[in-house]
Amino acid sequence: MNMFRTAILMAFLTGLFIAIGYLIGGQTGMVIAFLFAAGTNLFAYWNSDKMVLRMYRAQEVDEQSAPEFVHLIRRLAENAQIPMPKVYIAENPQPNAFATGRDPQHAAVCATTGLLERLSYEELAGVMAHELAHVKNRDTLIMTITATLAGAISMLANFAFFFGGGNDRRNPLGPLGAILIMIVAPKN
Fold this sequence. Notes:
alpha+beta
């Protein structure tokens, strides 16, 4: 079901890209936006997990570098009947954890040092079980693609601001359309 929802989301966002491209640059803008959306969708599907982990500067850990944490993830993955995900730790005082990856076979979980320092073993198990539930239910694909495409929509909003062609007669909404796109686009 989540694969279907992901496909619907990607189709909707592709349509949104095409509409925004048309508002910015007419038919040429529409074609460019379609190509950009198709490229972004492919890139997001294959690389969004790596981008999120890089953004957090997460380091992969194993049983030698973080034995208790990796053992906990292994036990939780076995209980959830999913493959063992890659395990990462991000050096950050903010308590946070997340799961990423396009499917359970390509999943990764990450916890910050702030989370590892603040929680008891049982509390950490609860947080990481929650993250592994995202992996099992394939929520991670839709979350990472959404984040990647939100960034792409923000980029389109910036294009609209700088290249929106407020005096361009092919843009039916003129400067109002560019402002609308900037308001609707998500903020980074």
